[in-house]
Amino acid sequence: MVENYWLDFCTWKNLTEYNKIALVGMFRDGLNTGLACKLVEIGVMNRSLTLEEWYFKAVKFERAKQVVEGIFGRQTIKPSGLASKIEKKPT
């Protein structure tokens, strides 16, 4: 959960002397990879956001995802079309 990560991160950041830019990068890199990618993909995140903005947007997105999963259930994407017909070659 982003909120638990935020609490741990804030404890840690107070012990460092990193500047704001480095802290944003550290926070972003510590997020769940899927969540971080989705936030950048949908265009709500950019390099100029503050650490707090990254946190609030990540929490908002995570909560929205939980609501959607609560209503529709967890969705899994199955390959279709050409992707389902391609055979993987042994390596």
**Low-confidence sequence ranges:** 79-89
> Level of helix content?
55-70%
The total count of helices amounts to 5
**How widely separated are the two ends?**
36 Å
Largest sheet: none
Tell me the Rg in angstroms.
17 Å
Give the topology string: H per helix, E per strand.
Answer: HHHHH
- Range of strand content: under 5%
- Silhouette: globular
Mean pLDDT: 78
Structure characterization notes:
The chain is an all-alpha fold. The protein is about 65% helix and about 0% strand. The protein is built from 5 helices and no strands. It is globular. The termini are far apart.
Layout of helices and strands, plus pairs?
Blueprint: H1 2-13, H2 20-30, H3 33-41, H4 51-72, H5 82-85
